[in-house]
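Input for the complex:
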Amino acid sequence: MDAFLAAGAAFLDPYLLGIVLIGTLGGVVVGAMPGLSSTMATALLLPFTLTMEPIPAIALLSALYCAGTYGGSITAILVNAPGAPPAAATAFDGYPLAQQGRAGLALGMAAVSSVIGGIVSVIVLIIAAPLLARVAYDFGPPEYFALSLFGLSMLATISGESAVKNLIGGAFGVLIATIGMDFTTGVDRFTFGFWELSEGIHFIPVMIGLFAGCEFLIQAGKLDQPQIRAALDAVRLPSWADFKKCLPTIGRSCGIGTFIGLLPAEGGTVAAMIGYNEAKRWAKDKSLFGKGDIRGVAGPEAANNAATGAAMVPTLALGIPGSATTAIILGALLVHGLRPGPHLFTETPTLLYAIFMAMLLANVVFGVFGLLGAKLFARVTLIPIRFLWPSVFVLACIGAYALEQSVLDVWIMVGAGLLGFVLKRYGFAAAPIIMGLILGELVENSLKQSLIIFDHEWLRFLDRPIVVAFLTLTLLSAVWPLVSAWRARRAAEATAG
Amino acid sequence: MGISPAEDRAAIKAARIPRDFVVAMAILAFCAGTYVVTLGFAEAPSAVAQNVQPATFPRLVLGVIAVFASVLAVTSFRRDSARKRPVKLIAVATGAMMIAFVIAFDTLGFIAAMVLYSLAMPALWGERRWRIVIPFALLFPAAVYVIFVLGLGVHFDPGLLGIN
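Predicted:
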């Protein structure tokens, strides 16, 4: 209770309130820009939060995360170009609605359902995170090893071209994490004689490069694609009839988004896709889906925002990221000297309550911004990309440099951007690599500690029920996409035959 | 009876090595090369290493990657990834500009590099409205300087031109 009051008192400080408002505003603007996602924005902003106290720093990133997830819907509806991947499903019906001259209705419903989804998820976060942390309090290295393996195996089920490629990406991230001095033995690994690499490759430049540097190159290939912006009527709140029609969809999507967000590695994009599919599946009249059904906007928007708070649950309680953006927030906690996990709840409860409050506030504020200022935010799509993206690249360079004030980090960022671009062309997404990079140290250290505890008898992992449960889930989540693809192919062959 | 063009195309498609198979082979080659690198890691005394040598974990990860790459190779004959259009020249030029910017950052100094880049990059992307490009090339670096150098205390080396 003292911690709650302390966090509440911190929010009476205009500085912290201002930080959350700026984060929310920034999130909506960034989310609204096609190609610029809240993931990229948090990655870019993270180095500059290092000079801040932990509470404002994490509050800023959390607010940006919540608002950015909503902001993506603006361009999805107006220009059929989702500002962020979680808004991709919103475009299916949002853009047709805008073409019919009902952009205001779509934007209004997106704002309302996003706020509801976001607030539900923060409530789940407030309730579930301490409970999960209490369970995890007794976890030892073997449990953490099994849990981090489970987190990595969940990469198989995130959206992307192929489950196997996501798993390879995750393992590649873990391999990058081994670069530098082995902390147990003091032996250099993969440093090739460069002493600068002895401290390892910091995940921030890699992250900025994989998200911002790579996107810069992708945008270069899209210069000849014209964007057609739908006319925007006045943004109005959905009528009671619209709301009543969407209420079951919103409720269902809140549940879907929360569940998906709770799973390690899964995030808003998967939640939104399932939210959309379920909205369509449960609808009695499906004929308007894809042509401008308002439930096709409410479903994915409630789901992707419901995933935001829920994705923070494993991030804060276990130190296992719930999504790509929460992986960056996890990184922010680490660089601020905080170790996410159960101890965070006993050692720095004020920080946690401040995060909860920042997210709650951000959800309310972006709803207001969304309803009152969608027309204004939509204007960010008018910023010429010939100036926007070169500026983003400069900010990416500064972000990579500012961490250690080292040009080597800028080279690493550029290298990661170029590598990310090549990998993307071959179907490898950035998010699994980042997840692997962030979890790599935990996987290696917990494995080493476990082997010492078990006197190098691998089978003793199976003596611990929680480990067995996580390893079973790991196996299931890694194999399930392959089995499901095989079944789908069999079904397709049977239909064709 | 001759072969129809459609059959001909289908035969060529069937004979083509799957794209993902080539990717999987490249990954396996990477794993093999990286494994060779791990052979060069120094051995730690067993009392320090506690039976987990520095190379053990990276080799384990390489093994995992190799297994997944093998799965990718096998499955590629049933389901291959879609072929992408060739990389556009402008994307290659943009990549070169990224590298050029970092070289200029390291040699000329950040501010000078930024002014040059802010002029060149929009021009490379086809922007010819110099009335916008020139103010952008002056105002954007100025804004960056005010926010990051004066505001956030980020220090940039002055470089050859000594502008800081």
